[in-house]
Protein: Thioesterase domain-containing protein
Organism: Microbacterium pumilum
Amino acid sequence: MRQPVEEWLGAKVVSEGNGTAVLQMTVTEQHVNGSGYLHGGVIFSLADAALAHAAIIPRDGATLNAQIAFIAPSRPGEEITATATTSTSWGTNSLVDVTVRAGDTIIAAVRGHARLTSR
């Protein structure tokens, strides 16, 4: 299941399953802040999309909270990869760790709490 935000980001799902997911996107000029670096909100959005593929999709759910550490900058033209791994699950809840890289360089680390919902 593709999320609309993935289209907006230009992201593609590389792999998903068994509590893991990998998403990639290429940084463009529309993704940068005033200093010309990849905007933190775009990094967070890619990481949150990867978290959803690891812990929620194809069911219904949401990210309840997440913390991000911005580690290094990224620039237009770079391909970034978000790798999400579910570290533990209980009931309808999961903790997911996401590492975002530009090549071999870690640019951000996220830990998020996801919960499945029912409609």
